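Collaboration report, partner site 2.

Our partner group contributed sequences for two proteins of shared interest, and the home lab folded both. The records are reproduced in the order in which they were received, starting with the first partner submission.
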Amino acid sequence: LGSAWFLCRYRALPPVEPRPPPLLWRAYLGVQAGGFTLYGLGLLLAPGTFGAFWPWALDGFHAQLYSAVFVAGGVGSFLLVRAAAPVELLTLGLSQAVLGGLAVLGLVLVDAGVNRVDWALPGTWLWLAMFGVPALAGVGIALEAGRRRAAA
């Protein structure tokens, strides 16, 4: 609710840096914004359905808790579609790279000890893609922030 209040209150202010990201990154951020936001809302409103494919049993409480991560990533991506300062791109890129990379690494390391993930299930690979693709994109977004900073 606090974030929504600030978004509404300051929506008329011009962005810190009015230059939009390159077209390819704007397209990716738009798709990511929609996907993350919809998935986060799905986890919040229908946790059993939207959390059913996870590699481990996901109860309603944890699904709703995880929904905040997806909604925050979606809103953050949406805000950077029209304009993004290098520090904003760097923040989003590093956040995605670390969260996504460590989620995938954590699954692999934990399963090496407990051997309970069914790696043949499509849902497991969907989950890996859901964290792995943004992790890789996060590295690219962070590199774009460095290019913009160097050009400034």
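Second partner submission, folded after the first:
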Amino acid sequence: MRKGTAAYRRAALAMFLAGFATFSLLYWPQSLLPLMARTWAVTPAASSTLIALSTIAMAVMLIPASLLSDRFGRKRVMSSAMLLAALFTLAMACAPTFQMVLLLRFCVGLMLAGLPAVAMTYLSEEVEPAALTSAMGLYISGTAFGGMSGRLLSVWAAEYWGGDGAALVVGLCGLLAAL
């Protein structure tokens, strides 16, 4: 893809949204850890496992996700990963126990690995070398913007609708980005 073409603009927007959704879905609970500890009657240390489990799962799944992308295709792995991570986040709003929330967060991390493991490879294969730096920069800026926005969006949503509402809002944003 050449910079300036419609295909490049669509791919760059998709990669920005993928980076945004990945880190928004990964880090949104961080600003709500005290609320989560109160809601589930767990210690602050236990509530922090909401972040740790998803991050560990993501790290464990990075290499397998890259292998899956070789077999099933990069776009398919990335779009499936985003869709499933958003759906697992939405399911957190209905989780009856803290253990179920932890399991869903672990699943989110497993799914999210499909993006960072594949994104740069996808771009290097699809974008012409002259446009590669800007395309990668858009993906990386999406990750930074997503990490910050996920934390802010969840706090805003929790202010009105609690932790379950935050999961719904962030999950819906992830779902929109996946679509």
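Feedback sent to the partner group on the second submission included the following. The radius of gyration is 16 Å. The helical segments are 6-27, 33-40, 44-72, 74-92, 98-112, 119-126, 129-178.
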